[in-house]
User: Which sequence fits this backbone?
């Protein structure tokens, strides 16, 4: 994941969905937008992402920002341990 050359392999992707109303339960959920956090940034800055706003991009028009999502990712210790493990 973090040892890959692909920048997308270190991304956590968040999907914002719209659920059907209770009287329309026969319909499927619909993807509204997407946002990401890069785990490599957590290692690079040696800091978890706490209460960070990420941009949410439209699911249909990926260059359009439609909002933001406040997220927390506590992964620094696990990432540090896993990267040290793979160095041996």
Assistant:
């Amino acid at each position: 994941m973090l040892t890959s050359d692909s920048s997308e392999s270190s991304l956590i992707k968040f999907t914002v969905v719209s659920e059907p109303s209770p009287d329309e339960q026969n319909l499927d959920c619909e993807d509204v937008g997407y946002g990401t956090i890069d785990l490599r940034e957590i290692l690079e800055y040696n800091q978890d992402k706490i209460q960070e706003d990420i941009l949410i991009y439209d699911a249909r028009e990926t260059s359009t920002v439609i909002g933001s999502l406040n997220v927390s990712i506590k992964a620094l210790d696990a990432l540090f341990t896993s990267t040290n493990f793979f160095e041996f």
Helices lie at 39-45, 76-87. Strands lie at 11-18, 30-38, 49-58, 65-73.
